[in-house]
TrEMBL record:
Keywords: Isomerase. This is Putative hydroxypyruvate isomerase. InterPro entries: HyI-like, Sugar_Epim/Isomerase, Xyl_isomerase-like_sf, Xyl_isomerase-like_TIM-brl. The keyword Cell membrane does not apply. The lineage of its organism: Eukaryota, Metazoa, Spiralia, Lophotrochozoa, Mollusca. It comes from Biomphalaria pfeifferi. It catalyses: 3-hydroxypyruvate = 2-hydroxy-3-oxopropanoate. Catalyzes the reversible isomerization between hydroxypyruvate and 2-hydroxy-3-oxopropanoate (also termed tartronate semialdehyde). Residues 24-263 form the Xylose isomerase-like TIM barrel domain. Its EC number is 5.3.1.22.
């Protein structure tokens, strides 16, 4: 069983100025699959044409995050932004359908102030209500809804969902056939570690995997905490058949950093 790596063209190929051009760059680097974070500042028709020309499969986008310039990073857990969340979801669906993308990460969002226990419960209720709404709505489009725990130790200190096991419990509690967990190896390692056992535990609920080295979020090579050849073998051993999104920040030119993929072939993964 071969692993299916998807280039995240929002974070990779930064030396190329536009997302449209990065589709072609991903193809030239021999990728068959791509993902991206936020396409919403880009012309939808131009992105559609660029993906089709490059003949790569779009495997994931993030849902509309709100206004990134004012600090938004998702709206799903924000009690005061419920209608904004629903409106943004419709825009997300337009982009997903244009790109023929069948997975969407629903971002919880930030908590911008210290909140009481009661307020946190209100955020969580809003989050779960919105997730059910999104899972229902996306199922009508044939798009899988995903949630992800984002670490609050390095990346986003005020993100609402930072604990991987809390995310897993939400997926279990909602028990929706169109809602899965996005297992980001970078975030899980920072928050919880224990990657082998966590992969095994989470596997029935995983809808997508992403990765980057810790702590610098660079290439999945030897320059960090994670032994990626071992982790890739774990994923193969447990029978994971989905995509592995390369959501990392290249330390230099993207193609130069892809030597790690060539080294994988040498050890017969």
């Amino acid at each position: 069983m071969s692993l299916k790596f998807a280039a995240n063209i929002s974070m990779m190929f930064q030396e190329i100025p536009t997302l449209e051009q990065r589709y072609e760059a991903a193809k030239n680097a021999k990728f068959k699959y791509v993902e991206l974070t936020f396409p919403y500042a880009e012309d939808i028709d131009k992105l559609k044409a660029a993906r089709e020309k490059a003949e790569v499969e779009q495997v994931l986008i993030n849902a509309y995050p709100g206004d990134l310039n004012t600090g938004d990073l998702g709206l799903a857990a924000r009690p005061e932004r419920i209608q904004d969340f629903k409106d943004g979801l419709e825009l997300s669906i337009q982009y997903a359908n244009a790109l023929n993308c069948k997975r969407m990460h629903i971002l919880a969002g930030r908590v911008f102030k210290d909140i009481s226990f009661e307020e946190r419960n209100e955020y969580k209720k809003t989050y779960m209500d919105n997730l059910k709404y999104a899972a229902d709505r996306l199922s009508q489009e044939g798009i899988l809804a995903l949630i992800e725990a984002v670490n609050n130790k390095i990346s986003v200190p005020d993100y609402f969902l930072s604990c991987p096991h809390e995310g897993l419990e939400i997926v279990k509690k909602l028990n929706h056939p169109n809602l899965k967990f996005q297992f980001d190896i970078f975030h899980v390692q920072i928050m919880n570690g224990n990657l082998t056992k966590n992969i095994q535990e989470f596997l029935p609920y995983i809808g997508h995997v992403q990765l980057a080295q810790v702590p610098d979020r660079g290439e999945p090579d030897k320059n960090g905490e994670i032994n990626f050849p071992y982790i890739f073998q774990v994923l193969k051993n447990v029978g994971y058949q989905g995509y592995l999104g390369l959501e990392y920040k290249p330390r230099g030119k993207t193609e130069d950093g892809l030597i790690w993929m060539k080294q994988l072939h040498e050890i017969d993964l």
